[in-house]
Amino acid sequence: MEPSTIFALSSGRLPAAIAVVRVSGPRAGEALMALARRMPAPREAMLARLRDPADAEAIDDALVLWFPGPRSETGEDTVEFHLHGGRAVVAAVVTVLGRLPGFRPAEPGEFTRRAFENGKLDLTGVEGLADLIGAETEAQRRQAFRQLRGLLGERAEEWRTRLIAALALVEVIIDFPEEDDVPHDLVAPALAIARELHGEIGALLADQRRGERLREGPVVAISGPVNVGKSSILNRLAGRPAAIVSPHAGTTRDVIEVSLDLGGYPVTILDTAGIRDSDDPVEQEGIRRARERASQADLTLWVVDATDPDPPPPPPIDDREQSPKIWVMLNKTDIAQWDRNDYPEWLHGHKCLAISAKTGNSFDKLLTMFEEFLVNTFSTSESILITRARHRHLLTSCHQALERALGEPWGREDIIAEELRLAARDLGRLTGRVDVEDVLDAIFRDFCIGK
């Protein structure tokens, strides 16, 4: 059965200077003949007067492009109409396309799904495209573009090729154990390949989840005792009154979030409830949430009052491996002088900065510290390949299968082969080569119509 030919507006909201209507499928060329009445040379723009084939009435003067498959974005015959971006113009063209036999409007993400199905993108590239469309900062854009161009997908496919070679060595011994011309020392080179891959994938997994954290946006929590100026610091960073500022303790009851672009990195700043003993159940819940969010943040600014000679230390966190970096902010230096040597011993173990949320003193230095921290922690170097939980889950499963294979004693070639098969299957699922129907709908539903 011939697949439908799909069409959709692929550019932004109307009205606009230019609108692009894209058509893909086996009958895409018929759209050109119906509207433009002639075919341009492949991959060359042609100016054409588009007419409604029902009555020959002119619709628009447009640029049309013809991309015969498989050399197109979707791998199918593809047409683009570059129109004047008025709503009536686009509506007229879409109406004509909807009347053509075998044509229908595209569903969300259907162009990209066809590109995947026709081998133009693997699944990591599809996810990279989705992240590129959703990127809000320069760092996110760079990371998404590397995924789109196949950085993880190509690495995973290279690993899978090596695994299949190792599996073939083991299966020779299983399938032809009595053959005189079959070497009996093939398990050693197979396990050598598995050992190399185990090390390479293990090194990739030990990345502190930087790729996922960058994709979602690093989190900075502003925490500390009550009435030390946490909300004022948030407002100063945001450049607007995002949080209510009051001299009364306990004003902030819930976690307030503000998203910022700091040096090209997407950062979420959290203003949390002041930490103190309280009998108010609402404030208690705010304090519980404050502690929880601070423990999950990538960085915590522990704010204390510079007028307090004995400021409280940050509360201990049970899981030290997951604990965030803590910087101490001595606020209200506009009304107090401070000497680090006069403060408690606990203060000496942290990076410390004297600031004034009221005057903005040292906030330029704080922003510089932020940017250095983000660059050092979330540097988008080529080593960061894992950007989604799905990637990490499958690579972890592959790593565990390799570990089990390496732990099997010689003479258990059947078990070794099965573990190598499982590892190769996980890599195939990562790129979409095998067994991924259960995840396709979830991935493509997040795309907009026309992409």
Give a verbal description of the structure.
The protein has helices at residues 28-35, 87-99, 110-117, 123-134, 138-148, 151-175, 187-205, 210-216, 230-238, 281-296, 363-378, 389-407, 413-431, 437-444, and strands at 5-9, 16-24, 46-51, 58-67, 78-85, 103-105, 219-223, 256-262, 265-271, 299-305, 325-331, 351-354. With 451 residues, it is α/β, with parallel strands linked by helices. The protein has 3 domains: 5-106, 2-Layer Sandwich (Gyrase A, domain 2), CATH 3.30.1360; 124-207 and 386-444, tRNA modification GTPase MnmE domain 2 (Four Helix Bundle (Hemerythrin (Met), subunit A)); 214-378, P-loop containing nucleotide triphosphate hydrolases (Rossmann fold, 3-Layer(aba) Sandwich). A 6-stranded mixed β-sheet has the order 3-4-5-2-1-6, covered by helices on one side. It is flat and about 85 Å long. The chain starts with a strand and ends in a 7-residue tail after the last helix. Mean pLDDT is 82; it is low at 242-253 and 318-323.
